[in-house]
Amino acid sequence: MWSLSFLLGPALLAAVSQAGKTPYDEYILAPSTRNLVPETIYQINGSVSNADVLTSPGSGNATFNGPASVTFDFGRNIGGIVSLDIASASSSAAFVGVTFTESSLWINSEACDATADAGFDSPLWFPVGQGPGKYTAEKKHLRGAFRYMTVVTNTTASVSVRSVRVKYTAAPTQDLRAYNGYFHSDDELINRIWYAGAYTLQLCTIEPSTGDSLTTLGEISSIDNITLPETVPWYNNYTISNGSTVLTDGAKRDRLIWPGDMSIAVESAAVSTGDLESVKNALEALFSQQKTNGRLPYAGRPFTDRVSFTYHLHSLVGVSDYYRLTGDRTWLSRYWNQYKRGVQWALSSVDQTGLANITASADWLRFGMGAHNIEANAILYYVLDQAQDLASTLHDQTATNWSSIASGIKTAANQRLWDSDAGLYRDNETTTLYPQDGNVWAIKANLTLSEKQSSIVSSSLRSRWGPYGAPAPEAGKTVSPFISGFELQAHYLAGNADAALALMRTQWGFMLDDPRMTNSTFIEGYSTDGSLVYAPYNNDPRISHAHGWSAGTTAALTFYTAGLHLTGPAGSTWKFAPQPGNLTDVDAGFSTQLGAFSTTFSKTDDGFQRVSFNAPNGTTGDVELVGAKGSLVSRKGRRVELVDGKAKGLAGGHWELK
């Protein structure tokens, strides 16, 4: 779907956006109102007359005659509080039940899909025999994500229903369709993937008092056998942070703060909705749980306190990401001492080999975390690199050993874990497993020794792909959109943009368009054979179909495909280095507190064409247009000649390639 706005220059696009029109808003999946009614009827069981009127309230009543059910389809994944407006019931003992599911696989009149380690979630029951009127679920029974909702009667009573509505509660402080960023290209699937990632994050952003209370944690395990008609109660009424909004892992579950998930979600939120208040509240909640020895939690409250080396590091990644995206130096200063204690806790695991020796197995539910693990050490190397930049920002010279420790990690990892025959890093010194996570992080963290080595890893990873995406063998027969989000970055960093786009089309295209999915948000994980089975879980209905860690495509397309990189806080310094791969047209942008970053360009076999980009006044940056010749010309007439496609030290403003 092409839009006239594709033909507009970035400055004009910015003006249009400021006037209240978000570019390419036809792709935005968020609803235009928080008062939702079902779009269509998916199926009817039993005797229900005039069921269609419930998709257009005010046109009459639907009547359920005895045991019956109607399954409604909202057309996309949504979340909120259900209300029924009852016209009449023939018996004072009449009840109406409601069940929810994200995937059509789990449509059921007896139960919802699942949030616990075993069993299905309980329906909501409304005592409609008490008389006509509106029956609304309690806030604690807000359902965080569902596309399908089944309304069921289970007695011989006749019940007439005026309307079925849902109050949409996700992204509670956002103007749902007023995005901060936009993306468009000549590939419709890629465009839809960008916006589905953004919408996934909106659904995962919640009012803090509606976190999962985890009442079954420790009570129900994956080895339990809970079969219908028995179901599992569920409650979304735990306060997980301060503030009025917070970013969580998943919309249905866990509705908690998980730092690993944030290492993908934060950047994608920044370039789409721009909601970084939710990120700040999540980070502050994690740091409020820091132990006196510096250790940060595996997950936010009320999850059980466990040691996780990698997720501890992800909280530190969150700090550097947040500062780079916001430039909030006051906030960074407030948490700096806690951040440093967190770094020191991680460094206490570095042994005489130069590598961190991991003794805690908790990670993203991959198997075999421990010993001199490549993923853990690559993330630690990345954190140390970021930590040095933050220390420089705050003029802190106390941590003088960070650089030497980082150097030791890089040397030891390549000596002990690199396998030149496989073209990949081993998981640790005693295994033949070549993990996805550690290898993609090795490129992301710049743990590799050369561009050639990064290219080898990129090619080796691509050679393992199956028909449904990139495997994560460290988690069994699993495709992990979380780790694959980092793999996208790795391919771009290795100069392999075509591989990144191919993985998006294969893996995220499958997640977006398969009929078992929500066709609007991205699933937590699935099997390499395409079945909706996630190896770390025994309870398939539990899988989340709106998981923020699966939204990495949104940031990857903005930062790498469009080339809009922030290298300094809030983009005070930047780099414009587009990698469109086999896309021929790209138009993208987003804003920070300093102003708008945007670009529009075409690329043919002859190279870049019709290139223009904007950066805020008062900023400076570099440009890298591979293969391009000519000069960059500013709106003020300044001309800078490209040398090998590069230019350095450009002032912010509007530039065009001539």
From TrEMBL:
Cite the Pfam families for this sequence: Bac_rhamnosid6H
Signal sequence interval, chain numbering:
1-19
- Coiled coil ranges: none
Q: Source organism's superkingdom?
A: Eukaryota
Q: Which UniProt keywords apply?
A: Signal
What SUPFAM superfamilies does this protein map onto?
A: Six-hairpin glycosidases
One GO-annotated biological process of the protein: carbohydrate metabolic process
Residue limits of the Alpha-L-rhamnosidase six-hairpin glycosidase domain?
A: 241-549
Q: Does the keyword Nuclease apply?
A: no
Whether Iron-sulfur counts among this entry's keywords is no
Gene Ontology terms for molecular function: catalytic activity
- Name-wise, this protein is Alpha-L-rhamnosidase six-hairpin glycosidase domain-containing protein
- Protein source organism: Aspergillus glaucus CBS 516.65
User: Taxonomic classification, please?
Assistant: Eukaryota, Fungi, Dikarya, Ascomycota, Pezizomycotina
